[in-house]
Amino acid sequence: MARQLRLAALEVHDKEDNKFKVRLHGIDAPESSQAFGLESTNLLRQLTIGKTLQMHATEKDRYQRTLGTLYGVHGENVNLVMLQKGMVWHYVKYSKSKEYANAEATAQKSRIGIWSHAKRIAPWDYRNGVRVESEKVANAPSTRTMDRTVYITKTGKKYHQSGCRFLQKSKIPIPLSRAQSAYGACKICKP
Question: Which residues are catalytic?
Answer without folding.
Answer: 23, 31, 65
